[in-house]
Specification:
about 270 residues; mainly alpha; 7 helices
């Protein structure tokens, strides 16, 4: 079994970090764009109301309200998606492949939205309709009134923010698809090392009542066979010597009783 502490941690490549920074830059651009929208959308609605005032076309009076709701709603939606991308950037830094896939999906949608808004702003939102005739104002007339009512720097700043947002988002998505990023997001495979013969696992406690390994002959605690002297080899007779046949510890001791033909002591005479 491989020790988890010996496995080196995955090193995050710099392209993943740069991609996260670009997603945060995209979020900052969307925040600024929302501030500009909130600052100018009210004035834009007033200009549209004045332009369509007195028009005989059905629904002409609701054009200004529709433009106001659509512009504000789309700006808020783009900001929420940008916040989602920023959260995904943090998860990308941790090497989560699901977050990277989600970033590609949401980022692709955002590229289409920002690119369409950028093209519409560059061409002019109200100049493509041409002359409408009757009492309806033309697109050029509406755009002229907007240019007079709004500050002159609003349109260039909006275009610059749109270009920066689009380029940052495209670069972030491309960096996440590079080979170094693929290696970082690839799930690491657990390695395995065969155990070394004769090696023991230190610190592994032995449960009570668990039988141990048999001991070799001659080691302390090895059971001896009957008639075997402790320390001698099993299957061999005990060593012989003088102490085994005679002596104080032997079984054959000298007899203390006198023999029968030996005369006993003569008792003393009384006369």
């Amino acid at each position: 079994m491989v020790d988890s502490q010996s496995t080196p941690a995955r090193q995050r490549p710099s392209i993943v970090t740069i991609s996260s920074y670009l997603l945060f830059l995209f979020l900052a651009c969307q925040v600024i764009s929302l501030i500009l929208t909130l600052a100018t959308i009210g004035k834009t609605r007033d200009v549209l109301r004045e332009a369509y005032e007195g028009s005989s076309a059905d629904g002409a009076e609701q054009v200004a309200d529709f433009f106001f709701a659509f512009g504000l709603g789309s700006s808020i939606l783009l900001l929420l998606l940008a916040v989602t991308l920023a959260v995904l950037a943090l998860l990308n830094n941790q090497g989560r492949n699901g977050a990277r896939i989600t970033t590609w999906i949401i980022g692709g949608i955002m590229v289409c939205c920002v690119g369409g808004t950028l093209l519409s702003g560059a061409a002019g939102s109200f100049t493509t309709g041409g002359d409408t005739g009757g009492d309806m104002p033309s697109g050029e007339e509406i755009q002229r009134r907007l240019d007079e009512a709004l500050p002159s720097w609003i349109t260039p700043v909006s275009l610059v923010l749109g270009v920066i947002s689009l380029l940052a988002l495209l670069a972030a998505l491309i960096l996440l698809a590079l080979p170094k990023a693929n290696e970082f997001f690839r799930k690491p495979t657990a390695g395995w090392e065969p155990p070394t013969p004769g090696a023991s696992y230190p610190g592994y406690p032995q449960a009570q009542g668990q039988p141990g390994y048999p001991q070799a002959p001659g080691e302390p605690g090895y059971p001896s066979t009957p008639g075997q002297t402790p320390g001698s080899e099993p299957g061999y007779p005990p060593p012989s010597g003088p102490s085994s046949s005679s002596g104080p510890s032997g079984t054959d001791r000298p007899d203390d009783t006198p023999p029968a033909d030996r005369p006993g002591p003569t008792p003393p005479s009384t006369s």
